[in-house]
Specification:
The complex is a heterotetramer, with 2 copies of chain A and 2 copies of chain B.
Chain A: E1 3-4, H1 7-14, E2 20-23, H2 32-41, E3 46-49, H3 54-62, E4 66-71, E5 75-76, E6 80-81, H4 83-91, E7 98-101, H5 104-115, E8 120-123, E9 138-142, E10 149-154, E11 160-169, E12 174-176, H6 183-189, E13 192-201, E14 211-213, E15 220-223, H7 241-252, H8 254-266, H9 270-276
Parallel strand pairs in A: 1-15, 2-3, 2-11, 3-4, 4-7, 11-13, 13-15
Antiparallel strand pairs in A: 5-6, 8-10, 9-10, 11-12, 12-14
Helix pairs in contact in A: 1-2, 2-3, 3-4, 5-6, 7-8
Chain B: H1 12-22, E1 29-32, H2 36-46, E2 53-56, E3 60-63, H3 75-79, E4 83-84, H4 87-95, E5 102-105, E6 109-110, E7 116-117, E8 120-121, E9 130-131, H5 138-144, E10 147-151, H6 177-180, E11 188-192, E12 196-200, E13 207-212, H7 218-223, E14 230-237, H8 243-257
Parallel strand pairs in B: 1-2, 1-5, 5-10, 10-11, 13-14
Antiparallel strand pairs in B: 2-3, 3-4, 6-7, 8-9, 11-12, 12-13
Helix pairs in contact in B: 1-2, 2-8
Chain lengths: 278, 260, 278, 260
């Protein structure tokens, strides 16, 4: 059952040094506020999992908290590179970053296997690609009926999955709608689940395209209005494309980045963060 | 983006974008990468193929955005879609399920067999690899869509003799490689650049210059290509953009820059 | 693209002697009217696929049109046996019935593999069960990462899938909601798809829990109000539990069954069927 | 259903149903088979466990029906649910995903190790097998739920020395078999009948009579069991149904029979 509690306490209790953490959200509903709380608490040596690392992981990587990244596409969508990610991979700043790299189809299926408590998933993937040469989480299986050889990818079962959703009720049931990405799979694959929400409502009204995560698969719900910014929450906010564009020059420079994190994350609290982050 | 002196009234990028859109004439469904492919696919809907079903890897089927999305997860893609599905379903039932005619990809590096690198760049001995974004959906898009279109700017940095890393296989080392690997789709059928259009030779699968954009010479294309580029016996010239095409393209781009 | 056409013509064009046909719907939205049209047209030697054969397949089996049944639970839900199914299996009346029998988890995953165009699916299933001894569509695979042996089930790719839905628009896009069972998987696994609908609407309004099948994955849409009776269409009708109970004595007796089919199916048309079938 | 002479005021079926409901005290989530398990689970919600989350294989999570559903796909199960999911998701993410505490099953035949047959009955040489409905969800429910409860009427036809077919494994041939097969759950913990309750012996996993319903004797149970039934050193007696339990049970059943 989900406890409804402060973001500070939920992060402190659920996310620990050395954990494997998935913060999911495909452009939409990215849990930035929770990531910033991780930075404020200095939770480190993390293995981060995410299909599209995006600016949220650029910040965590640049803050020096990440040991390893499991991913399939690491860019600032529509803008360009993730400079902190590149600096870590290319130059080991502020620390070396180990990679476990996949395709989207492979990552999606790794979450599906994790949610299904299977050790692996099967796909017709990676054919002719060099990707399998750089990871030990891609292998092959042979179809016992047709003899066809297919790709096998190892299940992902994060210690913690963090997502942002539009609403929870007082019992801690959560509903999200719009682009829901791999959030259900990432949540059900994890040992612990933290959900930040825009608001608590008396009753969850079923929405077209909505998915409901019942309270008994969630550990904590924290109310963080705007907690996806600069990503967005359909029905509550729009994507702050200007922020994503403004991020590029900040992230290009180590000092500018460090200053930005200090001013916009480390010295703020979850409560005051949103207004200042623009 | 400066106008080319030979073809006043439009830029080379616009030539590339308009021709990329035209390549979608007749297609039913298109799996759209962000950036240039998304520009082309949205322009196709505004011009040659109003019924084209746009599919984005974020899970939207049948998106009808009125402005160019900055990212594949922009809200308008979901709001205007016929259906929004979870990402695993998109990759398993729709893409791997063989439901999609055309995959439209960009690339950082491409070789003579339309193989793609979007992973790492070799910057020479004793230097660390340069990091690119990675695969995204491309390996399975290229394998499973009925056919593949590619769009990228022409330069010796991007059209290379040997890829530093094969992220996504196009035609491998030549004819038969796709069949040998059990790939359902026919693979890349055209690479549209700001200079012209390359297509795999039917016999060798090697990318061959088949069309030039107005005002571009074969020599310019060869100079911008990192291998000894094959040239078709007869090289055509693409039609200049029509006023309607240009107007539609510019309107899409302008709308994409508007604040919300 | 889906053509909107009469049930008679759609069935005649899409379903042929010897086909493998899946008519899905988990209690809800069972396409009875289409099955009755198959009976009227005498399309025979069918391999029928369905998780829960139910009264709809009892009728097709009793009518002598079925060579083989692929299934996981064959009963009249809440009432008892399917007597025509039993008579065919036990006594070969009106013809012998070959079986390919699974568990629900296995059947669901066979459809998933079919929709994913994979030759098989993996599950942690059938352990300690005799079921695998009677079919060649269950085998095993070994996880290349952990060494665990898991069940593999062969993909299902019906020649035709038939489903009933609440609504289509004029372009042939379909929406169904409520219990949606395995209908999406069954439709996407099939070579041809026929959808009967309660009505055509000007525009499909997105519904909570709704799934949309775009027109370009469907071959034909036929408008058959009440076409799921005695099953139901959420928002349009309720399940006719009395019919399911009344079916038991009809199906127990070969003559009573034959008479019922003659009077309620063979001598009626899709248009007049519903009123008479109660 | 006649009242038993020794325990006026309720029937043996009601004893079975009330005790089956009581067995769900403290459970969080229950995967509910149709028929007797559904009666028990709905009665539990009305009595000992109002917060019990009912999960039906038709895809409903958290159904709160006000009358007994005739089938697992009755409309009310979906309308009152917290969430309705596709059937493959139900079996893969929720059941196989290890999310469900209790699986509640019926059975046609059960043996001394709580293995289940719902597939075929051997009717003797030269006679065709008698056909039962088949497996449904049971093999994976029994394997993957945290624990399993079973409810069925006691008779030598249903409690047999040797199953004609093992549809669903309970404890196999004894302790250790489940672990050997990598089954996550602990398997059957109680078989509730109209005569009493059998539980697997902690040492041998063999079903053992541990409780009798009021007015039932050990000899009656042994006579209705097709093998030499083990009996616990101390056999308890179940509490008679309370007036509240009986009222709730009868109200549920009456509502289930109302025309809609």
């Amino acid at each position: 059952m989900a406890d409804i509690r402060s973001l500070h306490d939920a992060v402190a209790d659920l996310i620990h040094d050395g954990d494997t953490v998935a913060m999911e959200g495909f452009t939409h509903l990215i849990p930035y506020a929770a990531a910033h709380e991780v930075i404020r608490q200095g939770i480190t040596d993390l293995t981060l999992v995410r299909m599209t690392p995006d600016v949220i992981y650029d910040q965590l990587i640049g803050a020096g908290l990440v040991r390893k990244l499991v991913f399939s596409w690491g860019g600032n969508p529509g803008v360009g590179s993730l400079h902190r990610f590149r600096d870590a991979v290319e130059n080991g700043w502020p620390r070396p970053l180990e990679l476990d790299e996949h395709s989207h189809a492979g990552m999606a299926n790794r979450y599906v296997a994790g949610a299904s408590k299977l050790p692996f998933a099967v796909l017709r993937g990676y054919r002719g690609s060099d990707i399998p040469t750089r990871t030990d989480t891609i292998s092959t299986v042979t179809c016992p009926f047709t003899g066809e050889e297919l790709a096998a990818v190892a299940a992902l079962n994060p210690d913690v999955t963090v997502i942002h959703a539009q609403q929870a009720d007082r019992a801690g049931n959560v509903q999200l709608w719009g682009l829901t990405g791999v959030q259900k799979e990432a949540a059900l694959a994890a040992r612990r689940v933290l959900v930040t929400v825009e608001e608590i409502v008396e009753e969850l009204e079923p929405r077209p395209g909505g998915i409901v995560l019942p309270t008994w698969v969630i550990d904590a719900v924290s109310v963080v209005p705007g907690g996806a910014h600069p990503s967005y929450a359909s029905g509550y906010s729009v994507r702050d494309n200007a922020f994503y564009q403004a991020w590029d020059p900040i992230a290009r420079n180590r000092d500018a980045f460090t200053r930005w994190i200090e001013e916009n994350v480390r010295t703020r609290t979850g409560r005051t963060e949103k207004a200042g982050a623009r | 983006m400066t106008e080319t002196p030979e073809t006043p009234g439009f830029t080379r990028d616009e030539l590339m974008e308009v021709n990329a859109a035209r390549a979608l004439a007749g297609a039913k469904t298109c799996f759209v990468g962000i950036g240039l492919p998304s520009t082309a696919a949205n322009l196709a809907r505004a011009t040659v193929n109003p019924g084209l079903v746009l599919i984005y890897e974020s899970g939207t089927i049948g998106s009808k955005p009125t402005r160019l999305p900055l990212s594949i997860g922009d809200g308008e893609l979901a709001e205007t879609a016929d259906s929004v599905v979870p990402v695993p379903e998109m990759f398993n039932y729709w893409l791997q399920g063989g439901r999609i005619d055309v995959g439209f990809l960009g690339a950082a590096q491409v070789d003579a067999y339309a193989n793609i690198n979007t992973t790492v760049i070799d910057r020479g001995p004793d230097k660390p690899e340069g990091r690119l974004p990675g695969a995204g959906g491309a390996p399975e898009i290229a394998s499973n869509c009925g056919r593949v279109l590619m769009v990228l700017r022409h330069s010796t940095r991007s059209f290379v003799r040997k890829l530093d890393f094969v992220t996504t296989m196009g035609h491998g080392s030549g004819p038969g490689d796709r069949t040998k690997l059990g790939m359902p789709g026919t693979g890349p059928v055209a690479v549209i650049t700001d200079l012209g259009i390359l297509r795999p030779d039917p016999a060798t699968a090697e990318l061959t210059l088949t069309e030039l954009h107005p005002g571009v010479t074969v020599e310019q294309v060869r100079a911008a290509t990192g291998w000894d580029l094959a040239v078709a016996g007869t090289v055509g010239t693409t039609e200049p953009p029509t006023p309607d095409e240009l107007a539609a393209l510019r309107a899409l781009k302008a709308a994409g820059k508007e604040p919300r």
